[in-house]
Input
Amino acid sequence: MRAMAHVAAAALLCGIHAGSASADPLPPGAVGYNIEAVGYSNLNDKPGFKMSIQKVGERWYLYLGMLWNEGWQIVDVTDPRDPKVVKEIQGPDNTATDQMEIADGKMITALAKISPGWGGDPAKPFDEGVLIWDLKDPLNPQKLGQYKTGSLGTHRNGYAGGKYMHLSAQMPDFKGNIYVIVDISDPAHPKEAGRWWVPGQKDGETPAAPPGTVMHGPAFVAGNLSYLPYGGAGMIILDISDVAHPKKVGQLSMSPPFAANIGVHTVIPLPERGIAFINSEAIQEDCKEPLQHASVVDISDPAKPRLMALFPLPLPPADWPIKSFCERGGRFGPHNQNTLLHNPFVQPQGNLVYLTYFNAGLRIYDVATPTAPREVGYFLPPDPTRRYGTFPKGKLVAQTEDVLVDTRGYIYITHKNQGLWILKYTGK
Output
C-alpha cells in the first residue's frame, strides 16, 4: 500500500499545473508523500540558499542569500504558483553571500571569505562581516552600515529585531567561529557588545577545544537565555542577561558518538514545552563519516539538558532500486529546519518539524509526542541536470538545502543545483 501511495504522489507531482502560465514549469520526476508541489522558479539559473520572507501590503516577498557568491535575490511569491524574481543584488567579489536574515524592517547579510573548494581565490581580496540593510522599500534595500570582524567574516547570524545581532563570527586570534553580540542601535556604527567562546578556541589556551568546535549559528534567544549550536562542542545554553558577560548555563555534547564536524548545526528551543529540536549537518558524501542526527532534547532544566529521542532515519521509497540514501550519492543527513520563528510571516513551531536532508529531500515529522517523533511527509525533488558550482563532488544528485514555511502554509525549499520549489503539506 505504501508503494502505491508513492506512485500516486509522484504522478500528481509530475503533472500538476500542466499548461499553466508559469514561466518556470515544475521539473518532472519529483516524488512525495503528503506533499503537493505548488510552484517552481529556476531563480534565473542561480543557486538559492538561505531564505527569509515578509509581507508588504498585499505582496509576499521571499529574500534569498545565494550560493556561493551570487549575491541576493528577491522573489515575489504572492502567487506561489507563479513565483517571479523581481530583484537581483550583486555581492562583493570572492565573498560568500549565502546567509541572511530579516527583522524589524532590516536585513542583515553575512559576508565571509569563500574557500577555494567552494570557488574562492585565496590570492584575491574579499569582503567580510555583516551588511545591515534598510527594507523600507522592499524591492530596493539600502545599506545602512557594516560590521567587520577583522578576520574571515561571519556565517549563520541571528537577528530577531531590536538592538542586537547575534553572530557566528571568525575573530582575530581565535580558532573557528565564536559567539559575538553586536549592538546596531546606530546601524551606521555597529559595535561589539559581548562575546563568548568555548575554552581552548582562543590562541594559546590549553587544552584545545573538542574537535569540530565552531559556533555555527544562529543563536536562538529566548528571554535571557541564548541557545547556541556549537558544532562538535554540542548545544550550549548561555545566560545573556548581561550581554557584555555571557555565562554558560548548560551544555549537551553529541559528539561522539555522532559526527563532530558540525555536530550541532541548529537548535530550535521551545521553553514553554521544555524541549528543543537539534540537528547536525552532513558533510562528507556517500556517508563517509560518523552517523548524523536529528534529535529531541529535554531543556526543562537548562542546566541539565538531556537527550529524549532521535528522529527516524529517512528511507528511500519502497519501489526505488536503492535501500539506503547512502547509495544515492552526494550528502545524506540533516541540514536546516524552519528556524525563523521570530518572523511574524513564518509559521510558528507547532507539532510539525520541517527538516531538509540533502539527498533525502525535505522530511516532515510529527512531534506531538516528543519521545516518539514520526515521519508524516516527504518531498524528493528530481536529480538536477546541470552543476551550478563544485558540489556535490561526485554524482550529480539532488541536495535540498534550506526550508522556510510561511503563515499561509507554503513551504519553500532551496537546492545546490536546482531552483526554488514551493510546496504544501497535505497531511492531517
Remarks:
- The mean pLDDT is 94.
- The longest strand covers residues 48-56.
